[in-house]
Amino acid sequence: MSRLEFENVSKKYGKGMSEFLALDHINFSAESDQLILVVGPSGSGKTTFLTIAGGLQSPTTGTVKINSEIIGNLSKNQQSTLRLNTVGFILQSYNLVPYLTVDEQFLLVDKVKRQHISQEKFLSILKKLGIENLGKKYPNELSGGQKQRVAIARALYADPEYILADEPTASLDTHRSKEVMSLLHELAHQNNKTIIVVTHDLRLQDQADKVYQIIDGKMSEVLNIDKSAKKNLDFYSK
Question: Which SMART domains does UniProt cross-reference here (predicted)?
């Protein structure tokens, strides 16, 4: 059974002459234990796809299901609860609280979710991302790459069933990018997670179980990343 499913999903913005079709009749499914890469040029619909997958906005037509539940049939409160307890977001903008230290970013997750994970698990996440010594620093004291890794760690710390990541390695060098993708791959396969990464970064494709591309709002799976397909995909990273 699919954990996440799009059935004939389209998304339009604007009206009349200014109408723009961001997603065009998308059919897509993701299972547990999968790390999925979604690539495409800027403006192709990748971020729209991700925000609809996480219930942050609704499709114009079609159905989105999480754990067989149709998101559009839920009340606003139920949708908020679903996002809080089920979905973890890693956004390009980091979304760190500016007046909280790195350690306090995680304490906030505990308060909001009323959870408490073991110190051992917490430290393991920090060490894997190389941020174990940043606990007392504020966001304005961090580099872009450090902010990105803290944002990733915070999403993982909440222990969601789904992780939806928008360009999670954009601020990272090749070494850190590989470490992050390896961690996401491990989480998907060892911790029964569904992880979808939207990116231009084709350094990540070797760790992915599936690769999809979105072009002009249409999605298709890249079944075999041979030399010709790789050449086409490389275009997106430029």
Answer: AAA
